[in-house]
Structures are given as structure tokens and as C-alpha cells.
Amino acid sequence: MSLQRKKKPVEFHFVDMNDPSRYKKLKVSRACDFCRRRKSKCDIGIPGSGTCSNCKKHQMICIFSPVSTIKGTPQTEEAILLTPTICIPMNYQEFQSKYPLLVIKNGQAAYEMSTFNYDYQHNYNYSDSITEPSIELETSLFKDYFESVHPAYPLLFKQCIMNIHSKDRNLLSKPLRYAIMMSASTCKLSDSFYQLARKELYLTSPKFSLPMLPVRLDTVQSLLLMYKYNNKASHYLQLAHTLLNQLPSHVLFQHQQQSEMILRARWILFTSIAFSNLSDSTLYDLYIQIDLPADLPQPLDEELQEQDGPALINRFSQIVNLSVLYSHTVQSMITGSVSHIICIDQFKTTRQHWHDSLNPVTQNALVSQQDRIDILILYNAVIYDTLYLLLLLRNYHHHYQDAIETSYRLQVMVQKWIKHSGFSSAIQSKRMAIFALLLCLQIHILSNTFDCVENIRLIINSIQSPIDSRLDQQLNELLGQLTLDRITTPSSPYEQQPQPQQLDYFSLRPRQQTLMPSTNCSSPSTPLCLNSPLVQDKEWNGLIMPQEHTLLQEQLQQLQIEESDQ
């Protein structure tokens, strides 16, 4: 006669999460993805019920990838109720067919490739009777421009413009003056100044023709600022491109300052196109026509004397260099010339090299919602991860874990980026933010991790721009299919308060430094030691490597060689 073993009764214990010995008391059936990769002890009892201590320490989003339920182990009612309310995983092909506007294919966002009529024109409160602004108002708007727009968009020679304006504002061209005031962040009359700038350039005339535009650098600068006003009127870019090609024959002598500012205008023109919708035939044709500048921007003597002058131009050079890499990759995907797409491992090394060139305070601030950070450093990080994720998406099944980590990190940075006061000042910032979030969405659908779909929708809606309403409609429909009616997915990771621990940007290894500077001061009390020979900025806004500009220049020259071979 066989003896039947009596099952041991199940016992439940309340565990104090602050108790150091909790690991001995707590037994879990599954570890979160982060702990499983690190082969660490996970201390979250029920998947989806919170965040484990390891994820809190490294500021990771605690997720559990869906797994099939083991046969013979039925879920309890409590476990069912506490499980995120996500239904059967969606097949990516099903996602593409049901929600075509949310798809990114061959480096192109599908919603940008379909017809949609934006309201390009604002409801202008413009009148021919508008008077010239007072000198006090104009001076205030100029100051606002150079404080809020210039750090992310160094199109103008700040010291020269401010010096001339302080002596006699009429020495500056009217179109440029109006374009500067139009771009000022606190300007309530921006629509009126926009129309005044157009009028001064004869763009409102029915008889307008290209010869009516003065072939001058300030005309080009005015056109670039006017395009940036809503990033929709691509004919401003076409006019700026034509004038830039005519400038050498109209300027008898170019001194260093003018040559540098022409170079920056060329780079801003190129970057504005490179980060735009290259599936648009007009923009793509313009992209093909533009000659890549031979040199990267350099700080002028007057900028070298500014506290953040050299660092600003260095970060801007990083942006324009990334615009070349990004557009080169997208163009290769559009044309199908995959042999010219940058190697993932090579780009990952470059990306890691850039991250290591930052000081630990800046590295921590990239993914912390509380710490302040320079707008161009944050934009660089967003573009690096956007391009990296675009490359990973093409080879998802070989790099799926890296793609998931990058996707979560990119969402955190984009969410911080759009809250930054200088967000709208960065080149094509709104378009790139949406593109990055849609890239993240592709990864979530492929990996069946739907916990951030709602966050992606909310972030897109929070961007103050004429967004395609069809995006929101399809995101809502997608959420309706993914979410059941029982209980909502655990609280949004964007609503969690940042922890005081130092953050791990790459989530691959913990930080080695034990010193954590206070977030209330701009620099640590004791210098943080790094292994690499870096030059420290005065305000710890980042670290500049002596060889960094050489590296960027070599990358740029290599891209030019590849372009000429095509």
C-alpha cells in the first residue's frame, strides 16, 4: 500500500523591505528581467506589484517578460488580479496591418509617408498698422533669444549682434531683427513678427521671385529662423540653400568671423534637413543636392572668452556629426544600400566613448528627472540612442535584450527632454522626439512588453506642436486592444519619484564611484577621479576630450569618402 505524502500547508509572511535579512525570508517564483540578466536575487514577490531593490538602485524599470504558464500550476485569484492587464501578445505583423501609421519601416515613419493636411498657417494677429517695438521691448526679446534659443541653435554671432544692437538697432537688417524677436521664447507677438519678417523679404508679394532677396548672410539666417518657427515651410530651406551657394561670389573678402558663421549656417541647414522627414520628396531632393561642409564648427575668439562658449560649440559639433550619421543611415535604408549602413558594434563603441567622455554628474543627470542638464548634451544622448535603436531594430532578434534596455532608457530621456526649457530650440526637436518614441513602440510590440504604450501616447500628446491626430487615434485603438477591463497596468514608470542613488545610463554594470554629489550644487565638493585623461569643464557641464574634435573630423571625412563612392 502506497503512502500518499501530505502536502505542506502554504504559509504567507509579511516581509519588511527595509530589513537587510529579507533575502533569507522572501522566496519568489520569478525574477524580473534585470535581475535575471544579472543573475541577482530579486526581492519582488509578485510580478508587476512594484519595483525590486535592484531596479530601484540602478533606476531601471522593473519588468517581467511574458512567459507561458507552467502546466499543472494554476494561478491563484490573487495572482490574477495583481498581474498587469495585458491580453494575448500581439504579433508584429498584426500590429503592422492594424495600425499602419504607427509603424517605422526602412528608417521612415509611416504616418509621415501618408497624406495629412497640417494647418501650416497660424491664426496671425497681424496688421499693417503694427508699430515698431520699443527699444526696451526689443532689447528684452534679444536677451531672451540668446538665453533660451542660442544655446541649442548657435546660428548667430552673439557678441557681434548684441554689440551692434546696443549701439543702433537700425544697423541690423529688419528681417533678422524680426526673426530674432519672433523666436524669443517669451514673445507674445511672435506671429506678428513672423509676418513682418516675411514682408521685409518680399515673401508676401504675389510677384515674389528669387532675385528680390538680398544675397547676404543675414538673409540666410532670417530664412533659417523662419523655417524653424514651425518646421513645415520647406521652401525657406530651399531659398537658404540657393543663397548660400551664391554667397562666395557676392562677398569680396571673408574674414574669420564671417567664414565661421557661414559654415554654421550651412551645418544648420544640413542638420535641419537631415533630421527632417526624408520620405518627403522635396526634402529628400534637397538633401541630395547639399554639399556636406568640409569642416566642423569652431569657437571664435570672442566665444573662447565666454564661460561655456567652447563647450557649446563642441556639443553643437556633436549634433551635426550625428545628423550626418543618422541621415546617412536613413538614406541607406530608403535606397536599400545596406552595405553602407554603419556597423552596430562600431557605433556602440562610438556611443560608449561619447558617454565615457562625460563626467559622472552629467552621466547621472541624463536619466534623472530632477537633475538639470545642458540641452545639447541631452539631445546628443537622445540622438545616439535613437540611431542605435534604429540599427538594433533591423537586427532585433540578435540584439533583442540590448534593444529593450535602450528603448526604456530612450523613453526616460525623451520625457525629460521635452520638459527642458530649451527643447523647442533644438533642431527638429519635436519631430525627432516623436520618431524616437515610435521606435520604442516597435521594440515593445516585438518583445511583447506593453507596459509603456500608454506612456508613449501621453508623451507624444504633451509635445506642443501640430501633431497628426491620427497618431493619437491609432495609439488609443492599440491600447484598447492590449488592455483588459479588470485592472490597469501598474503605475507608470514616469510617475515614480527618482531615487537618490547614482544612475546607470547603460544599465550594464553598477557604477564604481561611491561618492554621490549633492543635486543642490553645480559641482562636487571633491573631484571625481576618472581613468581616462579628460579635461574638466569649469562648471562640470561635461568633459571635453582633447582628441574629440579630431575624432569627429575623421568620422566626417570617412562619411564624405563613402558618399563620393556611391
UniProtKB/TrEMBL annotation:
One of its GO terms (molecular function) is DNA binding. Pfam families: Zn_clus. Residues 31-64 form the Zn(2)-C6 fungal-type domain. It comes from the Eukaryota. It is found in: Nucleus. Gene3D superfamilies: Zn(2)-C6 fungal-type DNA-binding domain. Keywords: DNA-binding, Metal-binding, Nucleus. One of its GO terms (cellular component) is nucleus. Signal peptide: none annotated. Its main location: nucleus. InterPro entries: AtrR-like, Zn2-C6_fun-type_DNA-bd_sf, Zn2Cys6_DnaBD. SUPFAM superfamilies: Zn2/Cys6 DNA-binding domain. This is Zn(2)-C6 fungal-type domain-containing protein. It comes from Rhizopus oryzae.
